[in-house]
Amino acid sequence: MDTLEEKLSQIPVDPGVYLYKDSNGKIIYAGKAKSLRHRVRTYFQESRSYDFKLDQLRAEIADVEFIVVDNEQSHQAIQAQVQHFAPR
Asked: Do residues 31 and 21 make contact, with C-beta atoms less than 8 angstroms apart?
């Protein structure tokens, strides 16, 4: 089983959806990105400015899953399925 650090080092540059999971495997956040690698890495950069909500989320992340998509329709379909995990 890959650790979170190993998974983060293997993030694809492709567009897609990313799912953050807690230690119980429950999805705690879902987002979409044109470049998964760029977007997901922004959550874990030490140089970013302080953000209380983001820091709380980051502390809960135990696992990450990526779903690479090849077109906007697939992207929208996946996002519709995980919409309730996105922040408001």
From this structure: no
The string of DSSP codes covering 11-47 is --SS-EEEEEE-TTS-EEEEEEESSHHHHHHHHT-TT
Please give the full DSSP string across 54-84, using - where no structure is assigned.
HHHHHHH--EEEEEE-SSHHHHHHHHHHHGG
Inter-residue contact 57 to 29 (CB < 8 Å): yes
Contact 30, 20 (CB under 8 A): yes
User: Residue 31 to residues 1, 42: CA-CA distances in angstroms?
Assistant: 23, 13
Q: Can you tell me which residue has the tokens 């080092």?
A: 9
Query: How far is residue 43's CA from residue 21's CA, in Å, rounded to a whole number?
Result: 14
Give average pLDDT by consecutive 10-residue segment, the chain, 88 residues. 83 90 91 89 78 87 89 65 59
pTM, 2 dp:
0.78
3-state secondary structure of 10: coil
